[in-house]
Structures are given as C-alpha cells and as structure tokens.
Amino acid sequence: MKKKNNKWLFLVGTVLAVFATSCSNDEWDEHYSNTGYVLSDESLSEYIQSQSTMSTFYKMMTISGYDSVLNSPETYTVWVPTNEALAQVDLTDTSRVRELVQNHISRFNHPTSGVSSQKLYMLSKKFIYFTKSNDAYYFGSSSLTGKNISTKNGIIHTISGYESYEPSIWEAIGRINNIDSLASYFNSLILTDQDNVTTNYVLKLWGAIDNEDSTYTVLFPTNKAWSKAFDLIKSYYNCREVDGGATLQTKLTRYAIAKQTVFRGKIDPFAVDSMTSTFGKVFHNPSNLFLGATRMTASNGVIYLADSLRAAPKELWHDEIMVEAENSLYGRSSLNSNVYTRNSEGTGFVASDDRYIKVDPTASSDISKVSVTFPIPNTLSAKYNIYCVFIPECIEVASSNKPYVANFYLDYYDANGNLVKAKSIAKGLTTNANKITKLYVGQFQFPFCNIWDGTSTSNIVVKLKVENSVKVSETTTKSRTMRIDCIILEPVDQ
Prior knowledge:
It is a single chain. The chain is an alpha+beta fold. It has three domains: about 45-160, Roll (FAS1 domain), CATH 2.30.180.10; about 170-315, Roll (FAS1 domain); about 320-490, Galactose-binding domain-like (Jelly Rolls). About 25% of the residues lie in helices and about 30% in strands. The chain contains twelve helices and 26 strands. Helix 2 (about 45-50) packs across helix 3 (about 55-65) and helix 3 packs across helix 5 (about 95-100).
C-alpha cells in the first residue's frame, strides 16, 4: 500500500510540474517573442507614441491619419526611421508626409525570421525589398537598428534611414513641371461615361505605366519640344471644316506627338540596336532618338525628358500605309469579277502574309471592265508614292507568261474639300509576267487627311481602283485575270 501511495504521489507531482511548466511557458510567451524581444500589450500606434526615438515618425503618423490606422485590430508591420533620419523632411508637405508613412508600412506580420529576400507590397502601393546580408537586415537600402518588436496588432522594426517614395511613371507625369502639355493631353484621355464609369485611355492604349509590377522606358517631350513638334506636325492633319476643322486637327496632332513615347521594359537606349513602342513602331538607332534627353528614375521604369523630338516624320507620324488585298475589313469592292483569296506558301513566290487575291472576270465584253477597289484608311494631308504589288499568273499556271495591264483611279477630297471620284492617275501600266511586280502607280499629295475612327467604313474616303485594261482580243498575250498582293503608300518627306 505504501508503494502505491508513493507512486500516486509521484504521478500527482509530475502532473503538477507539467502544469506549472505549461503556465510558465504561457507566461513567457505572453511577454516575450520567440526571438527574445519584449512583447508589448500596446498597439503599434501606442508603442510608437511612447518611444522618444520615434517621435518624428509618430508626428508624421498623426499628420497623415495613420495614428488611427495603426491603432486598429488589423495586423501591420512598420519600419520606423530614426528621428535623425527624418530631420530634413518637411512636415508641412502633407502629401509627401503621407507617402513616406505609407512607404514604411506593410500589411501582416513580417519578422526577420526566415528572411532572405522578400519583395513586400507597402501601403504606398510600392514594392520594397526586405533582405538579409550576412548577419545584417535591410529594408530597401536602410539597415535595421532594432527588430521584431511585437505589439498586439503587429511588428515594429527600426531602421537607420528612410525609403523615399518614388512615383511611378504615371504619377511622375503630374509632378514634372516642364511637361504640362503632355500631362494636359494625357489627362484629357481620362473619360467618364454616362454610367459614371471612368476609363483611363492612356493606360489602356499606351501601357500600364501606373503598374508597379511592370517596367517601361518613356521618352516624354518637354513643353519646348511639344510646341516645336506641334507646329511641324499639324500640317499633316489638315481637316475639312465639316469634319472638325482646327479642333480635330489639334486633337490628331496631339495624338501623333504622344503616340510613340512609351516602350515596354527598362531599356538603355544607348545599348540596343532598336526599340519598339507599345503601339508597335520599331525605332532603329534609338541612341539618336534619346540623345540629349535628361534621365529620371521612376518606381516602375525610366523617364527621359527631351527638349526636341529627334526623329524624321516617317519615324513618328508619317507612316507607310499597307492595305493587304485579301483584307476586306475596310470595305473592298469589285466590279465584273469574282474575288478569291489564295495562299502563296510553297509556290516559290512570297506574298506579304502569304496571301493574295485572284480577281476573275465574270464578263467577256470590253465594255464590262474588270476592277477591284481598295479603301485606304489613315492617309495624312501629305505626299505619298503609291504602289500596287502584283503576283504573276505563273504562280498558278506555270506555263503562263502573260502580264497584267492596269489602269488606276483615285477617290479623295480636293483642296476645296469636295469629293473627287475615280480620278485617273495612271493608265496602261504593265507588270512583269515572271516575277512579283511592285508597280509604281505615281506620286500624290492629299490636301486633307482622312483618319478612320474604326467604326463605319463609309468614313474612309480615299480609295484606289485597280482596273484591268486588257481587251478580249488581247487575251492570247495578256491576262484579264489579276492577282494582287497589296497596296502600298510610301510617305515622301516634305
């Protein structure tokens, strides 16, 4: 019996010891973190307020309203700069104060435990790296002077410096003083519809230059460059009064200046052979384009400010226009013929996009002319060399050596703003029967631009009619069937 009592007492003592140890560990955990730092029963805001070495940051919190935010039940991690580090910050600049505070707070707990290199998303909507190097920890470029101070709603680290708020490219547009013309234009592209839905067409069309997860390189014209470019480019966008006149001319000119300013990726323009804008324009020798521009950094890329747009009209706004013959999007039409799309792959003849059209006559009379008409969108009030590219008949009939003979007619607005239809610009032009022929039709100066808005094709006024001029009596040596690859309008520098 005595042995049993002793055994029972031993078991009771063991249980009590375990219970005591458990209480002791709970008590320890209540006051200390697992890294040995004292736990605080205060909130983040209360703790920072209580520390004299953090008084400047707390003052910034009160200015920006984050004293209340860090007193809430939500969990945050705060990297607190020293008073000394913040000594030169202008506390009267409330916008900057708010950005700096947001730039040092992240949601959730981020202790140093397990840190190697973490990309943290801050309340400022910026990314800052939390890293370890040897035995030291860094928040951005600032070293930690204290770490893992645990409060009831998060963790505090103290840092030797502070991380400046770096605006994104989109934010910088509104902060750089000498690009007001560009900023004004971009702001005009933020539109709210009747359902109160706002769309930023800059971000939609040019690229997500507000996104911290993407990087861009931009070439922004200063007011000086904008004014110079506007005076040069506006003559290319001469508009009829009935179509919008000077108002539309200004709108189109501004678009032309701003269109090719954004490039994806963080690129050194002096170290690459070419750069492609977000609108798909390839710039060869970009070092010339960026020469003399002032470089600035942004949180999601690089900004270059240029006092002059160092590019020829062909590079920036006076583009080559190519209309693929097989593309019926613009309202292609035909007369006295059937039009079929054919593929050039494997034939030994290379058509653009590997396709062309075959225009077969449906009438056998010289009176019934075989023709196809191509609407040509986005012509400027400028000069072009006009070409029609033909595929030889031998692509389908190997033994054929028959050329095509064609007449060409143009629709356009004349200098008085009147519509001219089917003006003859070339007659009796003959192709090579054995190879692809880029046939020069002629040079033409359009008095008015005709920019297609992408809606009704009836708005495309400029049209090129290609007419087969071969008579029935001539079909033994010439072909009344035509095969056309594309229409090209090459810009001529003015």
